[in-house]
Prior knowledge:
The protein is mainly beta. It has one helix at residues 34-42; strands spanning 4-7, 11-14, 18-23, 50-57, 64-70, 76-78. It is built from 1 helix and 6 strands.
Amino acid sequence: MAFLINCPNCGERSAYEFKFHGEVKSPPRDGSEMKAWCDYLYFNNNLPGFQDELWFHVMGCGDWVQTRRDTATHQIIKE
Length: 79
């Protein structure tokens, strides 16, 4: 099974056309300690199951796509 992402501008494309940006999560509040910022920038939960993610369409229109993907099967249920 191919890993496909549906770009709103270009249609369904191979995931190889996109760059994974990470899990969708809220940044730390202003004045937070450096550790909170490091955790936000460099660490993802990457738990099995569905998670919201951001992908950048590098080899296409250059738009951002938010998906809800199962990390175990790569099944996407929302784009």
